[in-house]
TrEMBL record:
Peptidase S8/S53 domain residues: 598-815
InterPro entries: DUF7580, Peptidase_S8/S53_dom, Peptidase_S8/S53_dom_sf, Peptidase_S8/S53_subtilisin, Peptidase_S8_subtilisin-rel
UniProt-recorded Gene Ontology molecular function terms: serine-type endopeptidase activity
Composition-biased stretches (Basic and acidic residues): 135-144
Protein name (database record): Peptidase S8/S53 domain-containing protein
Region (Disordered): 135-155, 546-567
Active site: residue positions: D605, H643, S798
GO terms, biological process: proteolysis
Keyword Hydrolase: yes
Keywords: Hydrolase, Protease, Serine protease, Signal, Zymogen
Taxonomic classification: Eukaryota, Fungi, Dikarya, Ascomycota, Pezizomycotina
Keyword Protease among UniProt keywords: yes
TM ranges: none
Superkingdom of origin organism: Eukaryota
Length: 880
């Protein structure tokens, strides 16, 4: 239980035991067993709905409660002194998993033994009832002295399991396979997706299923053709670990008493959805609702009547709605509540990896059922959020700390800004200055929202204290100080604090809005709120001005447009991302769950700046395993130049399953010329201490450095040749020869090409003794840079070296993921030698117009059968 909140665990486990007891009571016709199950359900419900003040008392009693329930499940045997083996197995595993089924049988046996003796059963039931009664008495005392304790902390209608399952299915299984100009392209989440946001009690299906209503664009966003239609999609997923019916029933089917008949009917009408079918389903479902469900980790589909009937035109952002239309007070309150409730509902889920702002909240025109050809209607109570499954924006994280930033909870801050905009009826002005620090930009945006919230003149027509209170709590960082996110806390403490922040969000923001709507009765029959039709008085002439005590900014500057070469390089890296996504499926498909040892890549350069936004991602930080500074002995990661930051982030992108180790050998590239001894020491350290599989060196010397040659030879000797070295060739064209160590016989020299494989003129000429040379993308490549909120584009053989090293790292991981029964298994160790990796690079590279100049690209390995891919690589190794 090191990383799980005990209260969450207790709720899940006790609810499972209650379900088992109730079913056992029905099957064995034993009322005592059914009563015990009912009392346990009451306990689970209390745990589920406990407020902050109740939680504090509950935490003191939760351990004893769990031991008591464990004893009932284990009856009449003694229970272990530490832990709750049966509850842990039933609460943390899914139905069908061996540990779950084994624990379920043991619990059934224990409960059967307990309730077979009426006296023992009555004692157990009485014990559970006393727990409930003690809680009721303490709750009544609290309510008599403090009205705030009546604020119930509702449990989100969609469980963590439901959210994780739904998001993962859409991210991993529904890859785009559309055709574009006769060329098949595979990109992650190519279709636009809009998730419908709904208030409580509108989104939970029967049979303990959670329902997600979405719209998918018919064409992927990279397809320049016009949008054909929005596809109405429903996704049903299990809402907890409770075993469901053998077949899932869809919401619009008959809900009669004959469950068996309904299940059989459903089974006949639904079909399993295999990976890669989703694009075809979007076309087949035109005119129908595409109904998806997940059962036992499998995805099924069928077609049903339309429910979301919308115009097939792009969505309209909340910012545009506020700029164009007049919203009544009721419209504003209902909309604000739905958005605030949804932020709380999805707060710690992957759905929040997309920014929730007035630009990403969208509205769709409801198709005109009269068929008169008029424009569809817009309803403020039906907002959607535009979902981008592959966003890695630090401003989407639950907490985001950077020097100088005032408000470190981006999701809450963004909600507060939206509430201000909805209340005012217009979007707030934005100041964008190129090169401005991110902290300054975020702080200015926050200050602007605070100033507008305090300006009474703007709130004369919408003066609701509860609404303004919700805004203030969102924008005031101190609101969440009682549950801070501190790095020194343990994982369980971090999770407990996150849950507390979420509870505070409900109490301070969502509940006041809910209370306001209930008091005005505006939440009743909110679906009858009419469509938007009155234009804002200021729609054509008003441009919002900043309050007096806020900075008055100039018109936002346009960001520099990317060149065609920069766009192509970005797309090239997307292909690498798709390549890695496909490789990641190999081990699970073979029944292997994770490698025993991840590939290790050491990067020797100017270090890296972990304050660059790219490195804020927990997934990225978790993979940065080692740091050593030969430049000035800094304990913390550092990069005074930026060269190393760019390269480290590139390798992290190109080898997403590798562990990264960084050696800082100079503060600036110019100092590398006098750092040969440090380079030699770093090579030895990376080989012996870090046990790196691959060492990347994006630098070079005009003359051979004996100490570096000795370090390379020693590393190869100690590692029996099973270590790879990569180095940048040169950036001086034909004016100079290939640099050292790139020209060392044991090092793989890398040159730079553009995104089409054309070798750059700054590459050195090929030496006559070299059979072939390799080049890969090294022109206008985007990646992280210090003091830069976005990415910088850089060119050179050093950039190409990082990409080649990343690709090699991914290939090593891929090769290691194959089980012994696969062909060519005995030859896979050769991949870690220069001879083996050279053979692999030859196999996957493309020929160019220059003889013996090979273009390293992964495009030929994408979208092909796994057996063909493995034969292409393994066959080359076995031939050595």
């Amino acid at each position: 239980m090191a990383s799980e909140d005990p209260i969450d665990f207790a709720y899940t486990a006790i609810a499972q035991v209650a379900n088992i007891a109730s079913l056992l009571g029905v099957e064995s016709k034993r009322p005592l067993c059914g009563r015990l199950g009912a009392e346990l359900f009451l306990v689970a419900n209390y745990i589920d709905t406990a407020g902050l003040d109740q939680e504090r008392r509950l935490r003191l009693r939760i351990s004893k409660l769990l031991r008591d329930v464990e004893a009932m499940c284990n009856w009449p045997k003694d229970i272990p002194r530490n832990g709750y083996p049966l509850l842990e197995a039933i609460g943390r595993s899914l139905p069908g998993v061996t540990s779950y089924e084994k624990a379920r049988k043991s619990i059934r046996r224990g409960l059967d033994q307990l309730t077979s003796c009426p006296r023992d059963a009555e004692v157990a039931i009485s014990h559970v009832q006393k727990f409930i009664e003690r809680n009721r008495k303490s709750t009544r005392r609290d309510e008599s002295g403090d009205l705030s304790s009546r604020k119930r902390f509702a449990r989100p209608e969609r469980s963590d399991l439901a959210n994780e399952l739904a998001h993962r299915v859409l991210r991993e299984q529904m890859c785009c396979t559309c055709q574009s100009n006769g060329v098949r392209r595979q990109m992650e989440r190519g279709h636009l997706v809009c998730l419908l946001l709904q208030p409580p009690s509108q989104s939970v299906a029967s049979n303990n299923l959670a329902q997600f209503d979405m719209l998918f664009s018919s064409k992927p966003f990279w397809d320049q053709s016009q949008l054909t239609h929005w596809q109405d999609v429903e996704l049903l997923v299990p809402n907890d670990h409770t075993p469901s019916k053998k077949c899932v029933r869809f919401l619009d089917e008959d809900v009669g008493n004959d469950d068996q008949h309904a299940s059989k009917t459903t089974a006949k009408r639904r079909h399993r959805t295999d990976k890669g079918q989703f694009c075809r389903l979007l076309d087949l479902a035109t005119g129908w609702r595409l109904c998806l469900s997940i059962e036992d980790q499998e995805l099924y589909h069928r077609f049903g009547p339309h429910k979301q009937v919308v115009d097939h035109t792009p969505g309209i952002s909340l910012a545009k709605i506020l700029s164009t239309y007049y919203l009544t007070a009721r419209m504003k309150l209902v909309l604000a509540y739905i958005i605030a409730y949804s932020v709380w509902q999805y707060y710690d889920t992957d759905w929040m990896r997309t920014r929730w702002t007035s630009e990403t909240i969208q509205f769709m025109r409801e198709s005109n059922s009269s068929g008169d050809g008029g424009r569809g209607k817009l309803f403020t109570w039906k907002p959607y959020v535009s979902v981008h499954f592959n966003d890695e924006d630090p401003l989407c994280y639950e907490q985001y700390r950077i020097a100088g930033m005032v408000h470190v909870y981006p999701r809450i801050r963004a909600l507060g800004i939206m509430l201000v905009e909805i209340g005012l009826g217009f979007p707030l002005p934005k100041r964008e200055e190129q090169g401005r620090p991110l902290a300054a930009e975020v702080n200015t945006e926050l200050l602007t929202a605070i100033n507008y919230a305090r300006d009474e003149e703007h709130w004369k027509n919408f003066d609701y204290p509860d609404y303004k209170s919700s805004i203030c709590h969102c924008l005031e960082p101190g609101t969440f100080d009682q549950a801070p996110c501190v790095e020194s806390l343990s994982a369980s403490e971090q999770k407990q604090n996150l849950k507390q922040r979420r509870n505070i969000l409900y109490e301070k923001v969502v509940f006041p809005l809910e209370n306001l709507l209930q008091g005005t009765k505006w939440i009743d029959n909110y679906e009858k709120i009419g469509p938007l039709h009155v234009l804002s008085q200021d729609a054509a002439i008003q441009e919002a001005t900043v309050p007096v005590n806020s900075d008055k900014g100039k018109a936002p500057e346009r960001r520099r447009k990317r060149t065609e070469s920069e766009k192509n390089a970005s797309n090239w890296l997307l292909d690498v991302k798709e390549f890695n996504r496909e490789l990641a499926q190999v081990a699970p498909a073979a029944g292997l769950h994770g490698l025993s040892r991840r590939v290790r890549i050491a990067i020797l350069d100017t270090g890296y700046d972990d304050n660059a936004p790219f490195f804020f991602s927990p997934d990225v930080m978790e993979r940065l395993k080692g740091w050593k500074d030969w430049a000035d002995g800094s304990i913390q990661p550092e990069d005074c130049h930026g060269h190393g930051t760019h390269l480290v982030s590139l390798v992290l992108k190109c080898a997403p399953d590798a562990d990264i180790y960084v050696a800082r050998i100079a503060k600036r590239p110019q100092q590398l010329l006098s750092a040969s001894e440090k380079v030699a020491e770093a090579i030895s350290w990376a080989s012996e201490q870090w046990e790196a599989d691959l060492i990347s060196m994006s630098f070079g010397f005009a003359e051979e450095q004996p100490c570096i040659s000795d370090a390379i030879r020693e590393a190869l000797y100690k590692r029996k040749d099973s270590i790879l070295f990569f180095a940048a060739a040169s950036n001086y064209g034909a004016n100079d020869r290939e640099m050292f160590p790139a020209r060392h016989e044991s090092v793989m020299s890398i040159r730079a090409t553009n995104s089409n494989g054309l070798f750059a003129d700054f590459n050195p000429p090929k030496h006559e003794d070299e059979p072939v040379v390799f080049g890969t993308l090294g022109i206008d490549v985007p990646s992280a840079w210090p003091n830069c909120d976005g990415e910088e584009y850089r060119s050179g053989t050093s950039i190409a070296t990082a990409i080649a090293a990343g690709i090699a790292g991914s290939l090593l991981g891929y090769i290691s993921s194959h089980p012994p029964e696969k062909p060519f298994y005995d030859a896979k160790s050769l991949a870690r030698t220069r001879r083996g990796m050279t053979a692999i690079f030859r196999a996957i590279s493309s020929k160019t117009l220059q003889p013996d100049y090979l273009y390293l690209t992964v495009r030929g390995l994408i979208g092909i059968p796994e057996d063909v891919r493995w034969a292409k690589i393994g066959g080359k190794l076995s031939g050595l």
